[in-house]
Amino acid sequence: MDLDKIMEWATPIGLNIIAAVIILIVGYWVSHVVKKILIKILRKRNVEGVIVSFVGSLAYIALMAFVVIAAISKLGYQTTSFVAVIGAAGLAIGLALQGSLSNFASGFLLIIFRPFKEGDYIEGAGTAGIVEEIRIFTTSLATPDNKKVIIPNSKLTGDNIVNYTAKGTRRLQLIVGVSYNADLDKTRSALQAVLDREDRILKDPETTIAITELAESSVNFVVRAWVNSADYWNVHFNLTEGIKKQLDSQGISIPFPQRDIHIYEHKSE
User: Fold this and answer.
1) Does residue 174 fall inside a structural domain?
2) CATH number, domain containing residue 224
3) What total of structural domains would you count in the chain?
4) Do 194 and 149 fall within a single domain?
5) pTM above 0.70, yes or no
6) What confidence score (pLDDT) does residue 268 get?
7) In the predicted model, is pLDDT for residue 3 greater than 60?
8) Quick one: residue 205, left, alpha or beta (phi over 0 = left, psi -120 to 50 = alpha)?
9) Are residues 32 and 120 both part of a single domain?
10) Which of 185, 207, 211, 183 shows the shortest CA–CA distance to 196?
């Protein structure tokens, strides 16, 4: 074999090898740049550090896989079967971990869109409590009786989430039933007196006292007041007790044969 034939055979191979090396070097550099830009964008949006690291690494691995396949293809090797094997392996892993991946995706969405944050009191997935920690796969709640509930994130995102502290204030609503024999103006004044003594009730929006229903054995008043979310239950308890004592002291007539007064929290917010 003469030198010309050797050169004719070796030149294309050498050029392909050089091109493959260039693809690897440039691809490696581009992958790092994309990773840094993506991480910078996510950090500016105050995304959780775990999510930032994971997304950055995932983007880098995906880009490098594409670069390696492109370099191998430049050397003249068929990459179709190689890509098919990777795709099949990815599909098998995805099916095996679909529950975990679903929780991960849900955790990612919770951290990105932030329907609630640590310290909020929420209701979701059939339970309610204060959010203690939001992780990639689970969210931890502390219930009012101090139980720790760990909820898979997919359960939370798959149903309604009620965030009781997101707005800062809440409307407290009580229904007070008195006898048909009761003096309505006197009853209204008694209810207003209880509200006036409660300093934690906000002045704006104004409180409401109105007759909401002529029930079978009572005239029902609705009492609505706005409070800070943190004060909601303490004010609720104080108003309930205060209304009972105030009506007793005013001699407000009571529905028979029921008890002196029936007060309950209205279910609608």
Assistant:
1) yes
2) 3.30.70.100
3) 3
4) no
5) no
6) 43
7) no
8) beta
9) no
10) 207
Q: What is the mean pLDDT of the chain?
A: 81
Within a domain: 107: no
**Over the stretch 182-220, which tens digit does the pLDDT of each residue have?**
999 999 999 999 999 999 999 999 999 999 999 888 999
Residue 217 lies in a domain: yes
92 and 28 housed in the same domain: yes
Q: How far is CA 75 from each of CA 10, 26, 30, 66, rounded to the nearest angstrom? A: 13, 16, 21, 15
The span from the CA of 203 to the CA of 180, in Å, is 31
Is residue 12 domain-shared with residue 47, that is, in the same domain? yes
The domain in which residue 133 lies consists of: 115-163
